[in-house]
What we know:
Layout: H1 2-9, H2 19-27, H3 35-45, E1 50-53, H4 60-74, E2 81-84, H5 88-101, E3 109-112, H6 118-126, E4 131-134, H7 136-145, E5 156-159, H8 162-167, H9 171-180, E6 188-193, H10 198-207, E7 212-215, E8 226-232, H11 238-248, E9 254-257, H12 261-273, E10 278-281, H13 287-298, E11 304-307, E12 322-325, H14 332-339, E13 349-355, H15 360-370, H16 381-385, H17 388-442, H18 449-459
Parallel strand pairs: 1-6, 1-7, 2-4, 2-5, 3-4, 5-6, 8-13, 9-11, 9-12, 10-11, 12-13
Amino acid sequence: MEDNQTEQAVTFKSLGLNDALCEACEKLGWKNPSKIQCEALPIAFQKRDIIGLAETGSGKTGAFALPILQALLATPQRLFALVLTPTRELAYQISEQFEALGSSIGVKCAVIVGGMDMMSQSIALAKKPHIVIATPGRLVDHLENTKGFSLRSIQYLVMDEADRILNMDFEVDLDKILKILPPSSTRSTYLYSATMTKKVAKLQRASLRDPIKIEVSDKYATVDKLQQTYLFIPSKFKDVYLVSILNDMSGKSIIVFASTCTTTLRLALLTRNLGFTTVPLHGQMSQTKRLGALNKFKGKARSILIATDVASRGLDIPHVDVVINYDIPNHSKDYIHRVGRTARAGRSGKSITFVTQYDIELYQRIEFLIGKQLPQYVTQEDEVMTLLERVNEADRQARIQMKEIEDERKDHRQKRKKKEQNNHDDIQVEQPKKKRKKEFNDSENGFGVKKHLKKKNKNK
């Protein structure tokens, strides 16, 4: 009880946040700071480097955004902070939070991610925003190719979901970025991650000076208000059980995680054929389509999002009620991030993990990691099996639709190739003509030598 009273007594103002930002927090509905914010803000205001370990959905973005905005208010400067994230969707989400918190002070952000037009990004960078939020790969492209863009003046560096940045093989890009940035002695660095790995520890030694470690969660924790269950089923009946659960939970907001882009698309088409409002999200979609799909789900225009692990990190969609792991993740830590999409910011949520005869070892690893055995999700097998015929027919249609989509893509690729080849041939045809003119001019003919010789021969 005493702990609760002390927690309630802590406000953003008592942590040292200024009035303008306290008002912004109120507008966003942040009444009291979360655990990680209580720990991180006072240290950040002392301009110390921070390593923050906290479970997903614990308010990490606020923990680094608020100190940066407060420092920016004190010393206004362009290109003030750089935030690195592993995924494009997370970059857009962080940008939204910065702009919402800094709306009253006119903060300008630029999101620099792959899949979008380089030219418009170069223009955004030329306007010198206060905060740059980027994925490492595209940022390196701009540092190497965009004239006049430099990060020498950066005062703050944030690496969010640092373990995932390193897992996605961004190490080479990170090294390039760290070499270009001001030395760690003149900037503040925040490294946030849900899980601490050896790679993160190595990165900490390379880029932070005398950091303070804030650990709010257990080593690998899931939120208490999350009801986690598993369902042991034969692999050939996964689709039927999925449709049955979606039926039972109609009206709720659900994310279904699959392991591959193909499975994601197939499940989206299958469930659509059965009348569900479904939207897919995977890495093979263009960036605009990915953002469109996310916005439809966030705006509740679609109630089911079927996604690969692209959506497992950092995405903050408060209204998610249920997470279904259609395919069990290969890395146990990804399980924590997936189920962290629900039960966020104090809400409750459910997760159901499908375990087939091939997934037992992976499932046991997850139980070992989270340190508890999960209860089984209760279903009536007879009721589920009544759907089998309809689901099989919907699956057959979905596969036909996928074949059509693939054929369209192939046609489009071939047309593009032909067009490029024709353009290439035209260029090649034109070039020899130019050369011939030059040869003609440089030859004896050009100087009238041949004419002179012909005349000589005639006279003879």
